[in-house]
Amino acid sequence: MRRRPSRERGVGTLAMRPLDPFEDAELVHAWVTHPKSAFWLLQGAKLHDIEREYMAVAASEHHDAFVGLHDGEPAFLMERYDPRHIELVGLYEPEPGDVGMHFLVAPTDRPVHGFTRAVLSTVMEHLFADPRTHRVVVEPDVTNTAVHRLNEEVGFVPEREIEKPEKRALLSFCTRESYEAAVVRHAVAARPTAVSGART
């Protein structure tokens, strides 16, 4: 089922649809093997590896994937998972309503200012649209400082570093309340500054 599209100032319309492991494999393969996507740890993956990976995701009760659309065209990837069963088993104590998430913006040579934040906001809206979701959990590489800053902008709070088989990660959490507070802060910061003497 498609989520209702969202529109961010100056960015365009963003939406998501379920990933098709056959129809979308070639597209996703190009994204995750690009040098700019090194933190996805799939640089050497072949097309059939990606097909198998997302066939397994589609078959899983605890993992699903979505292709994000920018004005109707594929532009980002999101994975949602249940941390009680995959990715973080034994690495932290999950709470009811925890949902794990990964996202990737398609590499481009012509980045749009504010686009990645708009994508992350769309992802968070999608996750919190499910009333069962209380807290979003992420575990980016500790060296990925750009995504740490971005995560904090939408309300994530770092807790601690953890050792995963493939990386050292920064375990971070974003509750529904902290996300909503971040949305308000962003809206206030984005308001035009009133000019003295101007009519409003």
Number of strands: 8
N-to-C terminal Cα separation, in Å? 42 Å
Structural class: alpha+beta
- The spatial strand order of the largest sheet comes to 1-2-3-4-5-6-8-7
What letter string, H or E per element, gives the SSE order?
EEHHEEEHEHEEH
Oligomeric nature of the chains: single chain
Model description:
- This protein is an alpha+beta fold and 200 residues long.
- The chain contains five helices and eight strands; from the N terminus they run ββααβββαβαββα.
- The protein has an eight-stranded mixed sheet with strand order 1-2-3-4-5-6-8-7, sandwiched between helices.
- A hairpin with a 3-residue loop joins strand 1 and strand 2.
- Helix 1 packs across helix 2.
- The radius of gyration is 18 Å and the shape is globular.
- The N and C termini lie far apart (42 Å).
- The C terminus is likely disordered.
